[in-house]
Amino acid sequence: MCAVFFPSPTQVINEMLTSAMADSESVVYDLGSGDGSVVITAARDYCVKKAVGIEKDKRLCSIARSRTSHLKNAVIINGNYDSIDISEASIVTLYQSASENSRLRHKFLSELAEGTTIVSHDFGIPGWRPSKFLTIDVNRHTHRIMVYKLGFNTPI
To answer: Are strands 27-31 and 50-55 parallel, antiparallel or unpaired?
Structure first.
């Protein structure tokens, strides 16, 4: 079953990347990247070394590839993030359900290095304590941003 695509507002994306301290040395992976908005913002506005979006929906992947084709530091992968190695990431962004985030804990612990930042929009990672918790209001809707530092506020 495919998850429904709900794009993150631009203000939320910026806050997620700012909170993760994205910069020219960062490698950002966006799990379930949808239309590529996080990848575009990371590559273009934060000048990250590399921004990778992983999206299994072929239509959304096609849209994201079209939107990122001019960015040399952006890659969109059509596939299931469960089967794709994310170990090079220094920052992982996601907008998944709490149950999906819980399921992803094993992937994070087995593939990511200590110190990797994970930023989740609206849904936390059950059992893990965020190092930062922010709320941002956009168009009368409150969005939650949780930042996790692997190994510092989470198990390793």
So the answer is: parallel
What pLDDT digit, counting tens, does each position of 67-93 carry?
999 999 999 999 999 999 999 999 999
Taking alpha carbons only, the member of 111, 110, 106, 113 closest to residue 128 is 106
Pick the CATH number of 10-133 from 3.30.70.120, 3.40.50.150, 3.40.50.2300, 3.30.10.20: 3.40.50.150
Contact present, 119 and 20 (Cβ < 8 Å): yes
Token pair of 142 as six digits: 């409150």
Phi-psi map region of 145: left, alpha, beta (phi>0 left; psi -120 to 50 alpha): beta
Name the helix (H) or strand (E) containing 25.
none
Residue keyed to tokens 């059509």? 78
Q: Quick check: pTM over 0.85?
A: yes
pLDDT digits (tens, 9 = 90+) for 130-141: 999 999 999 899
